[in-house]
Design goal:
The chain is α/β, with parallel strands linked by helices. Helices cover 53% and strands 10% of the residues. It is built from 18 helices and ten strands. The strands form three sheets. It has a six-stranded mixed β-sheet with strand order 3-2-1-4-5-6, sandwiched between helices. It has a two-stranded antiparallel sheet with strand order 7-8. A two-stranded parallel sheet has the order 9-10.
């Protein structure tokens, strides 16, 4: 069973639960508070408000669930976690409904408000959770019986890797890791014969991205020998840049003593999960909604600026209005970034080169655009497409990324995020004129990763607006 099918099942269950809850709630209020006769079903459900709610309320619930991430990773749900997330969503949604449809009612006392509130709360929670419980229980059973699972790649080829494979594959309750093979650190790494008779060797760490894509790998488990542990940092940085990949590392004795090892089931093997999520699902979804809303607003309000800028660019120097260049985005995926052209045509015919304040390649109007960052405003289109965000590390070309990573491997952490029109590093440091300055700016972008939130994004945007109004761009 794939994720899409499961998402549709959860979606259908939630819709049916929301429709049934609304119907019962509407009927309950009419009978209990409006004193309709119990047998007046036709009269009750011919009410216009019932049919409006029957459409609007379930849609509202689905939107809320989607924002909270209820449909993400459906095969990895657990019944206990689903209980908590359903309860949290129900409380939030019922409070919104309460203020939207009940406070204007002319009821006899506050007692009726409380009764209505808790009737809606418990009815919605019970019906929604029961539907989800059935789906989740069936999925969990499918995993435990090995009918479905998560394609897994083992990184390591020695005795520790062999032991890790046995520990996971022979667990009392199977947790879903379907091993597709293992990879060595490099071509000189020794291979444990016992491991090679059970799993195929698929290549080396250098082939990891290709193997993950070809084998549709969902989890990577790193199990190295003691003599190889010094390379674990580079391996984690490398595999963390692969989209939607869960990375786990076998712990050593020190990890266990200081309490770094977390498991969510007594039957699971102890593994360190490398969590590369900087925010929760609902925060990521809100960030995306915020990006789209702001970008649409800005593009509408600045449409005269777009037009005037385009005309001036075209008139003041020969060549196209827009400059499009390949940059590297989230999870190392290339994309086309758009700007108003601020340089003369063929400015990089001698090869890639960063711009400086007195760069002769920049047109006179280009200097003005850069001061007020007008050249960047076409990137709101990139934000709408989803290849960029309003706030995030500035995207670079592969040519410069290779130079940065050679000196500062931690740059790869930035590639877990969507690049942004502006960033913490951009606000605090400005544009970089060479690789040294790129590395100096890196510390601010790493600081952003540690402090990601909608509130942080708003602060960075406000400081960016201040810089633009002061003409301090370059």
């Amino acid at each position: 069973m794939n994720d899409r099918t499961l998402k549709y099942r959860y979606l259908a269950g939630d819709l049916l639960a929301a429709i049934l809850t609304w119907t019962l709630f509407f009927y309950f209020r009419k009978i209990r508070f409006d004193r309709f006769p119990v047998d007046s079903t036709t009269q009750i459900f011919s009410d216009y408000n019932y049919w409006v709610g029957l459409v609007a309320v379930p849609i509202g619930w689905i939107v809320l669930y989607a924002i909270m991430g209820s449909y993400n990773n459906p095969r990895r749900k657990s019944r206990l976690k689903e209980l908590g997330s359903t309860a949290a969503a129900t409380i939030i949604g019922v409070i919104v409904l309460f203020f939207a449809i009940m406070l204007d009612d002319e009821l006899q006392s506050y007692k009726f408000y409380y009764i209505s509130f808790f009737f809606l709360l418990f009815t919605h929670f019970i019906l929604t959770y029961l539907a989800r419980l059935v789906i989740t229980t069936h999925t969990v059973k499918q995993i435990h019986t090995r009918n479905t699972g998560f394609p897994t790649l083992l990184i390591g080829s020695g005795a520790n890797a062999y032991k890790t494979y046995l520990d996971i594959d022979n667990q009392e309750i199977f947790t879903g890791n379907l091993f597709r093979g293992f990879i060595r650190l490099d071509t000189t790494s020794p291979v444990d014969e016992r491991l090679s008779t059970i799993l195929p060797c698929l290549g080396t760490v250098a082939d990891c991205r290709t193997i993950v894509e070809e084998k549709h790998i969902e989890e990577v488990i790193i199990s190295l020998e003691d003599s190889e542990k010094e390379r674990i940092r580079d391996i984690i940085l490398s595999v963390n840049c692969i989209d939607a990949l869960i990375v786990k590392v076998t712990p050593d004795a020190v990890d266990m003593m200081v309490g770094h090892v977390k498991v969510d089931n007594v039957f699971h093997s102890p593994l360190n999960i490398i969590d590369n999520r900087m925010m929760s699902d609902w925060q990521y979804n809100l960030k995306r909604i915020f990006d789209v809303a702001v970008s649409l607003t800005v593009m509408v309000l600045l449409s005269p600026v777009y037009l005037i800028t385009a005309i001036i660019v075209k008139v003041t120097s020969p060549g196209p209005v827009f400059y499009t260049q390949e940059r590297i985005g989230q999870y190392e995926h290339p994309f086309r970034m758009h700007k108003f052209r601020s340089m003369y045509v063929n400015a990089e015919e001698q090869g890639p080169a960063l711009s400086a304040d007195d760069d002769p390649r920049i047109t006179p109007f280009g200097h003005f655009m850069r001061r007020f960052r007008l050249d960047e405003i076409p990137q709101f289109y990139n934000v709408l497409k989803g290849t960029m965000s309003l706030v995030g590390p500035r995207p670079e070309r592969q040519y410069y990324i290779d130079k940065i990573v050679a000196r500062a491997p931690e740059y790869k952490l930035l590639q877990q995020l969507k690049p942004g029109i502006t960033s913490w590093g951009q606000v605090r440091y400005g544009y970089a004129c060479n690789v040294d300055e790129m590395i100096d700016r890196l510390q601010y972008d790493l600081l952003y990763i540690e402090n990601m939130s909608i509130a942080t994004d708003i602060k960075i945007l406000l400081y960016t607006v201040k810089i633009i109004l002061q003409g301090r761009g370059k």
